[in-house]
Design brief:
Layout: H1 2-13, H2 16-54
Length: about 55
Amino acid sequence: MRAQANSLRGFVDDDHAVSSIEYALIAMLIALVIIVSVKAAGEALSNIFDKVASSF
């Protein structure tokens, strides 16, 4: 019984899984910001190239 209680206490006190999930969410947010930024920059650059191409 004592071994089960110690095992349960160790499981409850373990913060590694929570930290891993937090880091994964932060990494996902950073990746999302990068993807949106690159997409916006690509569209802006495409518009500039279209204007230059249409001027000739």
